[in-house]
């Protein structure tokens, strides 16, 4: 049996599952001169077990995951593309983005970056407009962009932009660690299965 996936370029095999019967172990027994038999005490008999072989390629799984995650949608007259990887799978979990390169915003953003960088693979980016930085992060699948603005300096809150919906929410800096940990946790993924 083959398991296939509808790639953009057509159905292609992702995994093959084959019943090899006792062919492989019989051949191994013949050429190695070592018994490959199993004694089953319930039926009081020796036999060579059947083998079910499955093969799945990491490269095919990776390509399937990327193809499944690539999204393109129309927003007004423009097209928006992003890589909708689950936060647990996304290589970069968050981007720290100061709104401007002045007024102390980079310093505050770097402090936040330093607090989170040991627990999560995150990036710091201050190059270009905030919209272009959002687009860059969307294209590589970063699920959360954390914007540091002038209000951050007043009340220690930041804006989290969610990649898939582009919705934004204001949260305290103190909550970032817990929110990222919960969103990026494989435990939460497995509990939902």
Automatic annotation (TrEMBL):
InterPro entries: aa-tRNA-synth_II/BPL/LPL, Anticodon-bd, Anticodon-bd_dom_sf, Gly-tRNA_synthase/POLG2. The keyword Acetylation does not apply. GO terms for molecular function: ATP binding; bis(5'-nucleosyl)-tetraphosphatase (asymmetrical) activity; glycine-tRNA ligase activity. It holds the Pfam family HGTP_anticodon. Residues 93-179 form the Anticodon-binding domain. One of its GO terms (biological process) is glycyl-tRNA aminoacylation. Signal peptide: none annotated. It comes from the Bacteria. One of its GO terms (cellular component) is cytoplasm. Its EC number is 6.1.1.14. Keywords: Aminoacyl-tRNA synthetase, ATP-binding, Cytoplasm, Ligase, Nucleotide-binding, Protein biosynthesis. This is Glycyl-tRNA synthetase.
């Amino acid at each position: 049996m083959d398991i296939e996936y509808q790639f953009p370029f057509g159905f292609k095999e992702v995994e093959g599952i084959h019943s090899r019967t006792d062919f492989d172990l019989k051949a191994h027994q013949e050429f190695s001169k070592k018994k490959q038999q199993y004694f089953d005490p319930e039926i009081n008999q020796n036999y060579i077990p059947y083998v079910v072989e499955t093969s799945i390629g990491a490269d095919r799984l990776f390509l399937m995951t990327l193809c499944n995650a690539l999204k393109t949608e129309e927003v007004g007259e423009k097209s928006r593309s992003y890589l909708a990887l689950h936060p647990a799978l996304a290589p970069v979990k968050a981007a720290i983005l100061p709104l401007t390169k002045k007024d102390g915003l980079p310093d505050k953003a770097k402090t936040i970056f330093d607090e989170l960088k040991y627990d999560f693979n995150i990036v710091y980016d201050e190059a270009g407009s905030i919209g272009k930085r959002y687009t860059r992060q969307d294209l590589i699948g970063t699920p959360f962009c954390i914007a540091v603005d002038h209000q951050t300096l007043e009340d220690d809150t930041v804006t989290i932009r969610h990649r898939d919906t582009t919705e934004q929410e204001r949260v305290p800096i103190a909550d970032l660690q817990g929110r990222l940990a919960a969103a990026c946790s494989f435990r939460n993924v497995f509990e939902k299965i």
